[in-house]
C-alpha cells in the first residue's frame, strides 16, 4: 500500500485549509435547518399532510438513522483493517459513498410524489426517500467530524478547522433560507408553485460541490508500517463480539464527565433550536397572519449568525466555551420572549419588530451552533487519559445518535402537539384559541430546553487552559512518566474533566488489550 497518496499526506493547516474542511458543513448546517425548518413546512403547507404525519416522517426516519449512526462510528474507526479502508482512507471512503447517495436521494425528495406515483402515495414516498437521505448524510458527517482529530493534535490548529467549519455552517443556513425566500417571493404563480423543487435543485448542486471540495482537501492519520502491524495483529471479531464491543464502547463514553455535560448541553440547546425552527413558519403564517414567504425572509437573517460565528471563534480562545454558551442561550431566551410579546400585545404591522427580534435570535443561534462542535475535538483527549484508546469516531457517533434521536422526537412531538391543539394544516383559517395555544407552544417549549442547557453549561470545565494541562499530562505519561509524579494541577484538572480519581486513570492496558489477553 502506498501511504503517500493524498488521503495520508499531511499539509499545512491555515485559514484556506480550514475553510476547505468546513465546506462540508455548508451541507451540515444547511441540512439540519432544512430538516428542522423547511421539511415540516413543505410537507404541511405545500404537500398537505397533517402535522402528525409530517412529524412522523422526520421522526421515524431520524430514529432509523440514529441507530445506523450509532453503529457507523465504530465501522469507520475499524475500517482501516480493510483493503478499501487502507487504500482510500477509513473516513474518506465513506464520505465519497455518502456523497453519491445523497446527491440522488436529496434531489428526489423535492420531486412531488404525485408526479411519479399519482395521488395517495405521499406519506410512503417521502418517508422512504427522506430516510435514505438521512442515512447518506450520516455516512458523510460522522467520518468528517473526526477529521480535526485525525489531522492534528494542536489546539489552535483544531480551532482553525472547527472554527472555519462553524462559519461555513452559518453560511449554509443563510443560503438555504435566502434561496427559498427569493423563490417564494417571485411574482410568477408557477415559480411559487415549484419553489421547493427549484430550491432543492440549487441546494443539491451547492452541497455536492462543497462536500467534494472538503473530501479532497483533507487527510487522515498516516498508516505507518508499525501501525498497520498493530492493527493486523488484532483478532477478528465475530458478529456477537463486535456488537458486545460496540455497546461497551458507547457505554464507556458516559463514564466521561466532560462528555456527559457536553452532550447534555448540545442536545437540549439544539433540540430547543429544532422546536423554534419547526414552529416558526406556523407561528408567522397562522398566528401572526402574515404572508407565506415571510418565515423564509426572516430566516434569511441567519446571515447574522455568520457575524457572531466570527466573533465566537476569537472568544472561544480568549474566554472559553462556558462564556459563549451563556451569551448565546440568554440571547435566544430574550428573543423568544420578544416573539411572544409581539403576538400577545397585538402589535400592528409587526414586521420591523420581528426582524429585530429575529436578528437577536440569529446572532445567538450562530454561537449556539458554533460552540459544541468546537469543544468536541477535545473530548476524545479526556477519554484518552481514561482509557488510552482513540475513540473519536465513537464519540462522534454517540453525539450524532442522540442529536438525531432528540431532533426526530422534537419535530414529531411538535407535529402531534399542533394537531392536539386543534391546528388543521388544510384549513384556511384557525380559531383564536388555536392560534393562542400554538403561540404559547412556540415560545415556551424552546425556552425550557435552552434554560436547561444554560444551567448545565455553568458547570462545564473543559477549555483551552484545562485542555493544555491535560495534553501535557498525557504526553508525560506516554513518554514513560510515572503516575505518582503527577503535579497537583494536572491531577485536579484530570479528575474534574473525567469525573474519576486520578489513580483510576491511564490504565496499564487498553480495553482491547485486556480482552485479547483474556481470550488467550
TrEMBL record:
Pfam families: MFS_2. It comes from the Bacteria. The chain crosses the membrane at residues 21-45, 51-72, 93-117, 123-144, 165-183, 195-215, 265-291, 297-316, 323-345, 351-368, 395-418, 438-460. Keywords: Membrane, Sugar transport, Transmembrane, Transmembrane helix, Transport. One of its GO terms (cellular component) is plasma membrane. The keyword Membrane applies. Signal peptide: none annotated. One of its GO terms (biological process) is carbohydrate transport. Residues 501-520 are annotated as: Disordered. One of its GO terms (molecular function) is symporter activity. InterPro entries: MFS_2, MFS_trans_sf. PANTHER family: MAJOR FACILITATOR SUPERFAMILY (MFS) PROFILE DOMAIN-CONTAINING PROTEIN, MAJOR FACILITATOR SUPERFAMILY DOMAIN-CONTAINING PROTEIN. This is MFS transporter.
